[in-house]
Amino acid sequence: MNPKLTIIIPFLNEGEEVARTVKSIREHSNQEEIIILLINDASTDGFNYSQIAQRYNTQYIENTQRMGVAGSREIGIEHSWTPYFMLLDAHMRFYDNRWTNRIIEELEKDPKTLLCCQTKALNSINGEIVEITKRAISYGAHINFYTGRRLFECFWNFDKRQESPTMKIPCVLGATYCCSKEYWQYLKGLKGLMVYGNDEAYISIKVYLNGGNCKLLTDIAVGHIYRKCAPYIVEDDMRIYNKFFLSEILLPNSYKSRFFSQTIHYYKQFNEKYKNALYLFYEKRKEIYSLKRIL
Hints:
Layout: E1 5-11, H1 17-27, E2 34-40, H2 49-55, E3 59-62, H3 68-79, E4 84-88, E5 92-93, H4 99-109, E6 113-125, E7 128-131, E8 141-143, E9 154-156, E10 166-169, E11 176-180, H5 181-186, H6 199-209, E12 213-225, H7 236-250, H8 253-266, H9 271-283, H10 285-292
Parallel strand pairs: 1-2, 1-4, 2-3, 6-12
Antiparallel strand pairs: 4-11, 5-12, 6-7, 6-11, 8-9, 10-12
């Protein structure tokens, strides 16, 4: 047994859906090629997640305090020992066993690559998972660089510009992110982000700044249950902080100054949240500048 790919699944209060996702992976993969690592981000729902890990023979880590999506993904990558990894949400489905070889082969071709798979949009209706057939086929995503509330948010591309099983895209999206562990850690991955938000924009931009590429595997589709709301709360001050952080790390000074000058207007209804985010940004200034120096 010489696995090359670790499947990392962070989750918070996902319940039995974690087991359904892992079951789908086990049923549609070559067991000798993968390791599955579950990261319980301090769930509060009382569900026995360690029993799922035992049932499906997965590795299991339980955070003693909430680290957020970005932090939990980093913990999973740090604990993985295979050369490549795949980041999944805990509410996804697989449909054939070609994806593991396909991902590994593509990453072996070019070590400076960040991959994602084609997404198949799913919905849960009365406990039954069904495909959203009316949704147009998407081809990766693009990032909003206009200043404002939606700065650094990602939006699906629905324009197919080429016919290829592997196509370059501006930004990954869809929660099937695959990369070399060595390359990810060289880029410092998602370090610096807080709790939730802007993961895809941050890592995609860093890949391109480093001369790498984001790519979509159009021939590998993974089902993703797109929910109207998550089973946890994301505080607005953390969302605002992440925009401050990315602005400082990634934007030129003139553009960054315009963003900071406009934030009071954009977030005036979240005045206390804005102040909390700004204070946290000041507290973490040394860490932020150290991360900025590597780009």
